[in-house]
Amino acid sequence: MTDLSRRLREPLPLVLLVLAVAGWIAFVAMWINAGLSDRQQQETLALLTSERDQLSATLAERDRTHGQIAQANAKLLDVEQQLGSVSTAFTAASTELEARQNELAQAVTHLEDTKSATQGLIQQADAAKQLLNEAASRQASIQAETESASRQLSEVDTRLTEARRQEQTATTNVAQMAQEVATNSATLADLQSELQSSRTELLEAQDRLAQAKLATETANTAAQEAQAKLADLTQAKTTLETQVAAYSEQLTTLQPQVEELTRNLTQRSTALQSVETNIAQAIAPSLNGTTYETPSGLKLTLLDTGSFTLSDSLNRQVSGSFVMAEGELTLSEASGRLGAAQFPMTCPYSETEDGFTLGQAEGCVLSDLTFARSEPL
């Protein structure tokens, strides 16, 4: 114990002890600093992940808003097409209504003409009847005169010649009257036939008038229905236009926000990738700055500067640049020649306890080789 105390008082052991304590203190400080840095990076990563989720939700909401606007535009186009169809139908109904009204006016005019012609025929029939009555009256008067002459014939012989002459005259008049009666009867028959034809035409005109009125009522009903549909469609169009205007205003309001959020998301994604890369680099064990060797004598030296040297047991070597990222080792910009190796060469790798093993890949001549750490640089 005394010997140990005396040796500890010597300068060299004391210096070594101080250096050991200082080294342990530095190690503890670095370990604490690394822990704090890891926690800060994890908190930053969680914050960025939360912001990314919020921005993703905002973008999804914007996509839904765009979908609603597209649906509203499609509905507006459908309503405009329906409005065009209704307008066409309304125009056709108006044209048909005008045609029906023209037909109705023509039918009314024809009916008035027929009534006028019928009235004329009736007047002619009345005149013929009056003539017939007058002829009958004259015939009765002549018959009375004939009877009077016959009675006077037996009384006055001297007046026989005169009576015969008067009788002859009366007979002639009677014949003329009979002929006039026959003529008037034929005329009356013709007038009655024309009257019957006029009545038939009047009935036909009344039927056409009734049909025209029915067609007019139908056209008016169709026009009223078309006007009602047009009013409904106009109201629907106004509503949709109001909704589209509201959507457009909302889109105009949200567009700058979405663009700003997109820019923020891009910036945060870039920062997140940088942080993730830094974390991966901080967490992953470093394989750089070490020389690795295979059982067959193939050596691979990886420097912190990003350069490599690959040599075999015959001292043939190749040097260039390397990148180890995402589980792949890429050797490029090689100078020198080593067997059938061609560069750039990319090989997947998996870490082992004291090195790494290269996996199968196209163009990787180092496949299935295990490199063990031989010495640090």
Secondary structure layout:
Blueprint (H helix, E strand, L loop, with lengths): L1 H7 L2 H145 L4 H124 L6 E4 L5 E4 L4 E5 L5 E9 L2 E9 L8 E7 L3 E4 L11 E7 L1
Antiparallel strand pairs: 1-2, 1-8, 2-3, 3-4, 4-5, 5-6, 6-7, 7-8
Helix pairs in contact: 2-3
Note down, in words, how this protein is organized.
The chain is built from 3 helices and 8 strands; from the N terminus they run H-H-H-E-E-E-E-E-E-E-E. The protein is an alpha+beta fold. It folds into 2 domains: 11-279, Helix Hairpins (Orthogonal Bundle); 290-376, Lipocalin, CATH 2.40.128. An 8-stranded antiparallel barrel has the order 1-2-3-4-5-6-7-8. The longest helix has 145 residues, at 11-155. The radius of gyration is 64 Å and the shape is rod-shaped. The two termini are 41 Å apart.
- CATH fold call of the largest domain: Helix Hairpins
What would you call the structural class? alpha+beta
How far is the N terminus from the C terminus?
Answer: 41 Å
The number of distinct helices, counting runs of at least 4 residues, comes to: 3
Overall spatial form: rod-shaped
CATH hierarchy class name of the largest domain:
Mainly Alpha
Mean of residue pLDDT?
77
Number of domains: 2
Provide the succession of SSEs: HHHEEEEEEEE
Largest sheet: 8 strands, antiparallel, barrel
As residue ranges, the low-confidence spans are: 280-286
Helix percentage: over 70%
CATH architecture of the largest domain: Orthogonal Bundle
Strand content: 5-15%
Radius of gyration: 64 Å
